[in-house]
Amino acid sequence: MQRQFNILCVDDDLGFRRYLSKSLDDNYHIKFYALGFECLAKCQEWNYDLILVDATLPDMVAEQLVEKLKAIPEVSAIPIVIVSYKDSEKERTRFAKCGCDHFLSKVASPQDIKVLLHNVINQAA
Which domains does the chain have, with CATH numbers? Predict the structure, then answer.
C-alpha cells in the first residue's frame, strides 16, 4: 500500500478546490483553507508534505503568506507550490523571489498535477 501524502491548500476558489480534489486519488489527503490568515493559524496542527498557495488570496498577498510560512520553523522545510491562472515567466519569477519552491498552473491537467505533486514531495523527502 502506498503512503498517503498530506497537502495543505490555501485557495478561496471553490471551483479549483473541487477540480483539485477530483484530480487526485486516495494517496493524497487535502486540507483546504480559503484564507491566508486561517492557514497561518492552523498550519502547525497537522504534518504536511506539501503546501499549495493561491497566487491571489482575498486577505493577504501570496508572497507575504509564503514568507510567513517559511519563517515558521516547523513549516519552513515543507515545499510550497504557488497555484495561478497566470502561467508566465514573469509570474514564476515573482514567486521564486519570495521563497516559493514550485509553480503550478490552475489549468494543468489532472495528470500534470499528480506528476508535479509527486515529484515535489519526493524531492523534499
Answer: 5-124 (3.40.50.2300)
Percent of the chain clearing pLDDT 90 (strictly above): 57
The b/e string for 73-83 (b: 16+ C-beta within 10 A; e otherwise) is: eebeebbbbbb
- Total length of the chain: 125
Cα–Cα–Cα angle for 117, 62, 31, rounded to 5 degrees: 45
Say if residue 1's pLDDT is above 70.
no
Taking each helix axis from N to C terminus, what angle separates 89-96 and 62-70, rounded to the nearest 10 degrees?
A: 40
Contact 84/53 with Cβ under 8 angstroms?
Answer: no
Q: Shortest CA distance to 54 belongs to which of 90, 24, 20?
A: 20
Helix/strand/coil for 98: coil
